[in-house]
Amino acid sequence: MSKQKHELVDFAVTARKYKTKLTKKFINRKFYVDPNPFEIESHIPGTIISLKVKEGDSVKEGKVILILEAMKMMNKVLMPFDGTIKKIQVTEGQKVPKGFIMIELE
Amino acid sequence: MSLKKNILELRKRKEKVQLGGGEKAIEKQMAMGKMTARSRIMALLDNESFTEYDLFVEHEGRDFGMDKKELHGDGVIIGTGTIYGAPVGIFAQDFTVAGGSLGLMHARKITKIMDHALKMRMPLIGINDSGGARIQEGVNSLAGYGEIFYRNTIASGVIPQISVILGPCAGGAVYSPALTDFVFVVDQISKMFITGPNVIKTVLGEEISMEELGGARVHAEITGNAHFFANSEMECFEQIKKLISFIPWSNTVRAKVFPPKEPKFKGNIEDIIPSDPKQPYDVRDVIKAIVDDSDFLEIQELFAANIVIGFGRMNGQTTGFVANQPLVLAGVLDCDSSDKAARFIRFCNAFNIPIITLEDMPGYLPGVDQEHAGVIRHGAKVLYAYSEATVPKITVILRKAYGGGYIAMNSRHLGADFMFAWPTAEIAVMGPEGAANIIFKKEIEEAEDPDKMRQIKVQEYVERFANPYVAAAKGYVDSVIEPSETRSLLLHAIEVSSHKDDQRPFKKHGIPPF
């Protein structure tokens, strides 16, 4: 248990707090964040092959806004609703991890 | 005269082939801090017990100039031997021969010893140290992997299967260890991953070292793929030998019975546990106070440490222990600890090893990450594994047994044969604070001093439910016992259940929530 926190902490399970140690994995767990509909995130890690829009463009729902190549497939990323491209955070050829905010909408 | 010549010829051939990839490659292997495949086998098995098969097998590669290459033994050593007199089948990949890469004949050798171990009903040990598929042999090498996985599956639950990762084990190759019962890793030497750092960098631009991606510590602490972590190869071999001494050779025989020994622990067992149910203690101290010679072999010590699993002996007979660990995360059940416990319970059941459960847990770990990671599906594995098990199942409730956790931890309702509870046991739907907040919500809110009223009501709930006697009154608990009686009652329980016969309806197999 070399990498575990050695000090005892208060740890709440329902209404009672217990003195216990925490694991590294528990401390490093991801906290839940409500998804923002105005941010287009990469759903899979890959490479931006082409951008089909510019900042300031008004785009109709369903139109292709960029192509994300991942696992040898060209994935079309579509506009989720009618709106405007506020900010583009990626460039063509850029590699993005999963969950990267590629485009912000208005 | 001519016979002598033939014998000399054999010796000469052997000597050459036994060098594997040759002296230079062996030097390289040693420079990496690794033992050679042959020296590993010798270190693990009883002296002079190893008998080698297929030493003279040659590889099948005919393309890309491979036909001109000699690959001695095709990069793997197979054979049989003994560990403390127990027969085992063993294979060890030889990294000095073409990087231990797996071609058709290499795989044939491995499947041969697997078939042999299964037929002879003896444990199989596989030492993995391989760069992966031999690309020059194309689909033949993929076929080889598939045939190994198939045999791992067929042998699962019939003979114990042990994988030792002493080098790289990447790509599809990782699935053979994943299908086996116990995986051993060594710090700085073992590397396991599906896609390596190079691919990850090319595809994602993420940079990570092999050690951080799939080193021994990662698999021992984070993924749970490994069951035993060692600092050196020799320490690893000692762990394997110890494990072999605890487990049976197959599912049709019992593990070797050792002479009974009293625990080394000489204090009062009840002094291990603090009287305040919110204070932790190390449940392994309780196990060591119960088992023969205080000798407990813990499995997956570093992974999901909120539950403790492992083997001890009770009057010389191997027994599996599952215990909540209040010292870590208060001993809650979560995704990882459920997986860990469920798999161990199924191993014990498959190999006829009685299970003792020590319970002290406040419930399931709350959190979005847990719910979204599928704590329902993972938690269900524990219910499934306990209910399915037909070996003797004994539970001792030490302190808290709340809610779904009480049911899951081998309760009477899941078929426990013996339910013991210490007088400190609290068997209830939830902790007293939570329960009082719900039951007496109105009284607490309307009181002049809500905090004082809450305290009164919590106390009321504690007196009414936070004890073992309500469950004992219904027969859910067989016996409320003094802590000092624990070992003798457990010995009795195991003794009287030695002929347990629990028949279940016929089925091909159940459908556990994998």
Can you describe this structure?
The complex is a heterodimer of chains A (106) and B (514). Chain A has a domain at 39-105: RNA polymerase II/Efflux pump adaptor protein, barrel-sandwich hybrid domain (OB fold (Dihydrolipoamide Acetyltransferase, E2P)), CATH 2.40.50. Chain A is built from 1 helix and 10 strands, in the order E-E-H-E-E-E-E-E-E-E-E. Chain A has one helix spanning 24-27, and strands spanning 9-13, 16-20, 39-41, 46-51, 58-59, 64-70, 73-78, 83-88, 95-96, 101-105. In chain A, the strands form 3 sheets. Chain A has a 4-stranded antiparallel beta sheet with strand order 3-10-8-5, with no helix packed on it. A 4-stranded antiparallel beta sheet of chain A has the order 7-6-4-9, with no helix packed on it. The termini of chain A are far apart. Chain B is an alpha/beta fold and 514 residues long. Chain B has 20 helices and 17 strands. In chain B, strands 10, 11, 12, 13, 14, 15, 16 and 17 form an 8-stranded mixed beta sheet that branches. Chain A binds chain B through residues 1, 3-4, 8, 11, 13-26, 29-32, 45-47, 70, 95, 97, and chain B through 203-206, 217, 221-222, 278-280, 301-302, 304-306, 326-332, 336, 362-363, 365-369, 372, 430-434, 437.
